């Protein structure tokens, strides 16, 4: 049995409302059981309208928001008259029909607040293969920079069983990792984690905060593993998603989405479970670059570039004096200066293109390459210095 509160090593206890207020980049995961009315099989428009209002309030507060939304298969299944126990190809057909319905619902709801929605469809491979991961990240970053609300869903129309996430809780965690979000919000049909199954044990204690995901926490989650006739997730999948997010420096909030405007309810004191991250998204990302990737080549830089890197700048192609090895865009490379190794980073261009632009100003890139690419050889966010 879990204690009612688990504190951080320094003895402090974090508050869900404070964590929510402090977050700058938020991923919201919304399941089918919340979005789709179980009686009619259609989108619950009043709930979605209130949820869009929540998103608009977050945006007005200066937060970047990414939505991970289930519902395409459930909506398409109803439109096609299919039962719940369908074959994979029928499920993919339902997704193909339902995705446009889902996006129309989100577009309409967000447009009422002057917001634009963009559909982003992902498979597991898109977040597990580095080059595809970088491409997906670049798209999401561009959408956020343009003030758009990305609405992410699994690409069920093309995903086979071996490349599927299986549930959108994991997809939401991978999206948070990809977007370097600092908070993942999993809306559920229960207001967080309990010490026991509250449906069976009236003495079950709500757990407002976890500093870590222990075996005891995972065992406790096996009790309130609530499923509905529409959704497919449970508390165990939410904690597994929280583990993925935590490894990326992202905290997780689990709260009930049953009420209209659940995020407003959280701000007003509604109960939730906060699972804290041990670091920041950027720290986790740079640890991944430094410790998990084998460098595929070398960029040799001059004294001016070395000094700029030491000052926290990105690596410009104008400061690159030599390119060694064969590598693709997104690969990890060593950065070497006149005095030796400076660090490692994810390069923005393939080796052949780096050779074309080395020593040149970014204004010349389009003429040299025939296309317009990033203005730097390695962005500072993708660079880890050795000291």
Key words describing this protein structure:
single chain; about 375 residues; alpha/beta; eight-stranded mixed β-sheet; five-stranded mixed β-sheet; 15 helices; globular; disordered N terminus
Kindly describe this structure.
The structure is a single chain. This protein has helices at residues 16-22, 32-35, 45-60, 72-80, 88-111, 124-128, 130-145, 168-179, 215-221, 235-247, 262-267, 281-292, 303-310, 351-357, 365-369, and strands at residues 25-30, 64-69, 117-122, 149-154, 183-188, 193-194, 206-207, 209-210, 251-256, 272-275, 298-301, 320-324, 332-337, 340-346, 383-385. α4 (72-80) crosses α5 (88-111). The strands form 3 sheets. Strands 3-4-2-1-5-9-10-8 form an 8-stranded mixed beta sheet, with helices on both faces. It starts with 15 loop residues before the first helix and ends with a strand. The chain is globular, with a radius of gyration of 23 Å. With 387 residues, it is α/β, with parallel strands linked by helices. It is 39% helix and 18% strand. A hairpin with a 2-residue loop joins β13 and β14.
Compose a concise summary of this entry:
By secondary structure, this protein is an alpha/beta fold.
Helix and strand topology:
Blueprint: H1 16-22, E1 25-30, H2 32-35, H3 45-60, E2 64-69, H4 72-80, H5 88-111, E3 117-122, H6 124-128, H7 130-145, E4 149-154, H8 168-179, E5 183-188, E6 193-194, E7 206-207, E8 209-210, H9 215-221, H10 235-247, E9 251-256, H11 262-267, E10 272-275, H12 281-292, E11 298-301, H13 303-310, E12 320-324, E13 332-337, E14 340-346, H14 351-357, H15 365-369, E15 383-385
Parallel strand pairs: 1-2, 1-5, 2-4, 3-4, 5-9, 8-10, 11-13
Antiparallel strand pairs: 6-7, 9-10, 11-12, 13-14, 14-15
